[in-house]
Design a protein that fits this description.
- This is Response regulator transcription factor.
- With 212 residues, the protein is of the alpha/beta class.
- It has ten helices and five strands.
- It has a five-stranded parallel beta sheet, with helices on both faces.
- Strand 3, helix 3 and strand 4 form a beta-alpha-beta unit.
- The longest helix is centred in the last third of the chain and has 15 residues.
- The chain is globular, with a radius of gyration of 17 Å.
Length: 212
């Protein structure tokens, strides 16, 4: 039996994942967390085979959690499940220590297959991600400007482009508004942009956010 812990800040998403995994007789969900604090509390009680982890969460992001677990030498294998397309976060997640990456829009059975694969000690990489890895190795010089941003800078970019104010971002990430302003300034400088409008256009053109 493969034990699974879920971490996603949306209760409906967690329920959907839990219900999907419940249909597999060899998978068992042992706990759910809505943020990093709840996750840490659960990890004091459980050491699951697989942690199904969202990328975008208030406070510490999924990428932050991956870094913490790697620094602690945790044996837990992490499967990242995100609403973002593979080309935006999959490579970052895998480089940060994830064992696999699944898009929330994929077929539910793909999630089951991914959890089972990771739980059995095998990396789960979709054909799309495998192609990206090959292209990344063969043509690293063709990377886009936002791919050179740090994880926190990319997170700030996406949130600003989604229409959130700096004060809202600061509260959600548990940072000071001044710190968020520094991240924003770094993003603008690295992308060669001057304001939030240009930043939003860039994010839409590069499919970092959806055009509403």
């Amino acid at each position: 039996m493969i034990s699974v812990l879920l971490c996603d800040d949306h209760a409906l998403i967690r329920r959907g994942i839990r219900d999907t995994l419940a249909e597999a007789p060899d998978l068992r969900v042992v706990g759910e967390a809505g943020d990093y604090g709840e996750l840490r509390a659960l990890l004091r009680e459980h050491t699951p085979d697989v942690l199904v982890l969202d990328i975008q969460m208030p406070g510490r992001s999924g990428l932050d959690v991956l870094q913490v677990l790697r620094d602690e030498g945790s044996p837990i294998r992490v499967l990242v499940v995100s609403m973002h397309p593979e080309d935006q976060y999959a490579l970052r997640a895998l480089k940060a220590g994830a064992w696999g990456y699944v898009n929330k829009g994929d077929d539910p059975q793909q999630l089951v297959a991914a959890v089972r694969s990771v739980g059995q000690g095998r990396k789960y990489i979709s054909p799309e991600v495998a192609l990206m890895l090959a292209e990344n190795l063969s043509t690293p010089q063709n990377s886009l400007p936002h791919e050179k941003l740090s994880d926190r800078e990319l997170q700030t970019l996406v949130m600003i482009a989604s229409g959130k104010r700096l004060s809202d971002i600061a509260e959600e990430l548990v940072l000071s508004p001044k710190t968020v302003s520094v991240y924003r300034a770094r993003v603008l400088e690295k992308l060669g942009l001057t304001n939030n409008s240009e930043l939003t256009v860039y994010a839409i053109r590069n499919h970092l956010v959806q055009d509403s």
